[in-house]
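re: ur question from the group chat, yeah i did fold both. here u go
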Amino acid sequence: LDEEQDESFKQDSNAPYYHARDVALERARSFGALAVLGSATPSLEAWDLARRGSAELVEMPERVSRLERPSVRVIAMPGFGEVLCEELVSKMKDRLARREQVILLVNRRGFSTLTTCVKCRWIDRCPDCGVAKIQHEAPAGPDGRARWTLICHHCGKEWAPAEKCGQCGYPSVRACGVGTQRVAAEVKRRLPGSRVLRMDRDTLSKERKQEQRIYDQFRERKADVLVGTKLVAKSFHFPDVTLVGVVDADTMLHMPDFRSSERTMQMLAQVAGRSGRADKPGEVLIQTLSPEHEAIRGAAAGDYAAWADGELTARRELRYPPAAALLRAILTGKDEARTAEAARGLAEALRVGLAQKAEVVGPAPALLREVRGKFRRHLLIKLPPEGVEAALAAARAHHRASTVRLTLDVDPYDMF
């Protein structure tokens, strides 16, 4: 498995739920074959296998090109209302003057990430999903003027932007937050004449040729700056990229998910690897409000092993994978009260049935409390790997609510 840390290997959209890494390892074991898990930023699961001696760690401490790793520095976030700090803009101007290229990572698509009332702080949310509507810049109209639309990134519904507060009626609302569209617009404003490409899910079709087209355009120097989500952190080779800027490293860092530190570290390390890949030295600037966080410090130091060992210790103390198995139970129903009651009943039954063998956390409203008009509750069960089958059987045996759907996911990657 190349890039074995990639979360696309986890199947969690439809049953059966599984991780391709686990399937590959089991297939190799069954047939006496060799499984190779390749990654510059291994998953904690793969790292744990190596540290326990269950897998052999084969390291490549140097770049294939023998070039020095890029210089990585942590810098402060810009002032209120700004997107790019002065140091980052200055470095970009310098690179473009030398006919070199720049990649900017911002892991949110759209223009602004929420619309809020300046008076009562109301947030414009999707009525079916309860999440903030994302402001997008739509194609210009016949008059050439910019047009705006609000989109729910979960159900896909669209609305015209609000002209007044939906709660208090105040006639002034503000779009806040930063997405790829806003960063691209800011680059064009701060660096007039710069040629900017954008790579996110909105610019890519379902066909791979769209991604290839953007890749070819940038590699052929038909653009100076590539702005994108984590898609730009993939194993692309752009020989003229000498500067990578991370616009907001905190986007994933403070998510209520035990893998947030791992995801941040991997994303920063991967995108840093896009800089200085030919005969020109590379530089990486990370804008963050959390310069002392272990993931940020680890990325700046380029010491993935030290960070991974520290994170493994924390996972063991808190009983999270790979130190223990984790079962997530998600209950979904149209009636909020019945869904909540089904979740409470399941949690109580598992606490009694599994006794001292497991720790049941919750239930609580899921982070996405409502999706497409259906309410969601979830609970987590921490337990030894050998207890997973018994926990699954106990959950299925207890659940009888025909109007509430139960989904069970072992070692989940989606905590929303």
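okk and heres the other one u asked abt
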Amino acid sequence: KLDTAELLEIQKKLGFGLECWYGVMETAIEAVLEERKKRE
């Protein structure tokens, strides 16, 4: 498991913060849930 300091270093290298990452994940999860609703 990575510790917080390692995660922050990786984020700096990648050039984006956690807010951005969570935003992307949230959008992806919502899209999946919408697809499931359509199928039901």
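fwiw on the second one: The helical segments are 4-14, 18-39. The two ends are 37 Å apart (CA to CA). idk if thats what u expected
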